[in-house]
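User: Before I run my own analysis I want an independent prediction to cross-check against. Here's the chain; please return only the structure tokens and, at the end, one sentence I can use as a sanity check.
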Amino acid sequence: MRTLTHKLTVFMLAFLLAMPLAGCRDDEIPSANPSLVYPEGELAPGAGPYVSAQPSVKAEGTVVFAIAGVKHGGVSVDSAMAGIDPATGVVTLTVPDTAEAVGEYLISVSVSVDGRTTTYPDALRVVVRGILFEESDVVLQRGEERVIPVGEVCLVQTGETLFSLEVPEEGTNSYAGISVDAGSCAVTVAADADAGVYPISIRVTNRTNPDGTLFSDVLTLTVESEPYGLVYEPAAVTLIPMEGHLSPRPTVRAMSVAQGTEVSYALEEDYGVFAIDARSGVITLPEDLELAGVEAKSYALQVNVTNDKGTASFAGAYTVTVDPDKQAEPVTGVTYPDVNQAEGVRLASGEPWVSEAPRIEGSNVGIEWSVEEAPEGVSIDRKSGVVTLAAGHDVPFGSSTLKIRVQNQGMDEPFVYELPFEVDPVVWQVKLGTNTAANALAVSGIANMDRFSFLGKMYQTSATSAQVKLGWSKSSSGSYVDFIGANNADNQPVGNQNNDWLVSEEIDLQSYRHHAVLKFRMTYNYGAANANLLGFYIVEMNDENVYTYDAAADQEQSGAAGSTIDSTPCGLPFVGLADAAPLTPTTSAGWDNYADYTLEIPDTYKGKRIRIALRYWNPSEGSNNSRTYRIEDTLRIEDTLAE
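Assistant: Structure tokens:
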């Protein structure tokens, strides 16, 4: 009996152990279930949102994920910065691109299965990498020693981490006396650190990242000081009596939060003739002035330099010696710093230009400059050598030279320097792009002129050109523009009439021109003199004459609705150029017989904004022979000197 009872007890215990516990069925996710797993993540500052991997979760039924909360540095923040895919559990974290965003983010996730929800606190850890100092801007006085400890270092892997100072490749500061502790990341400033502003960038390396990660501008260090280290290079000069002089510009070290590197200069004693520029520190001695004290030949000038931290005095900073036995060295070379001697000065027609002051090899005692046979509008300053070309000057078009003469007290004959110039007379010219036989219908191959067609239709007639009951297209087989007529009325809206335009971009005829002309090379073939005419037109652009072009409006195909043989692009008052509205040559020239054409642009357009247009048109409705005009890519407006 005892044996049976014992067996029943063991059986019942085993049965009970085999049953699932109440409230813990297989389709639920208990709060202690460790199966919701996210890998830890890291995010570089400013790198964009972090997107997690898809988590693993053990559950049966429909699973829905949601964000339950976000903590930054242990403090709850707006959970809207984290999003989650409710079906997959993929988390997206977006943080601002600021230093305050650096640190650890812990994201809590809730998981619902068939209406039953379990929250997993701190399910995902994301570290926004960075280095935070307790102070982001540190100001010290020069000579002050300081250790600046780090506030927080945020990295996913911290083992075997080393810190080092990253010195910028460019800059005026040497970073001497500034260092970063490899273990603690503390910044140390030694007493001998120079004045200046030092952005501190730190490189972090560890076992898995030997090249390191750079954290830029984590700290700004300013070392303030009154001026020190004034240097003129060279610091002395020897002159002959009555010789003028400009010293080199000095360098000096100084820094303050309020003024930066700004300082002011003053002379302790000017001897009645010396002057110093308060901003640059350049010392000036005018020509033809007697220095005080005939016996004193050397003047050791004391320069005082001031900023808002104080004034420093530098005795003997610059020495001027006057030697009555020294002779003026003749000028043996001239250099204009802003002129490339090989290329010279390149200007548009009449474009103004003012040179920098030239440098000479030799003495400037009694220096005098002049220009040989200077064109109208060209002058040179007698004492400084600065060359001025006034707007509208008459320097000849093409390449030329200005012969500049310079002579000083020690020279019997002047030194002649040739300054090369090139003046381009072209104000505007047609630009040809590319097109092929396959796309000539849609692509004109003319880059800076708009196409308009009134009464015509665009269609293809050959392998190399597009036509429009007369038409315009750069031939795909050459650098020229064909204007091609039609000799029948097939498919034309109004008999054989056509009215087609090429309109240039806006051209500025402001004060740089003397007299503008339109130039081109043209030949023609076929057709009668009174059919399919070619004309050249001009219009002033102003507040009343407004130009608009809308390719989407099909202007290249058939123009505006209701257009006529008298229609003009945008309804503007185009005026035919003299002797060119239209061109009506009486004989067929042939494709190899080009002629040069020059059309005068009236001086009434001088100083104005204009557009030019080529008009290919046929006012006759009857059937007539076509005429084809061919213009090379020399179509241009040039400036010419008025005779």
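Sanity check: The first strand starts at residue 41 and ends at 43.
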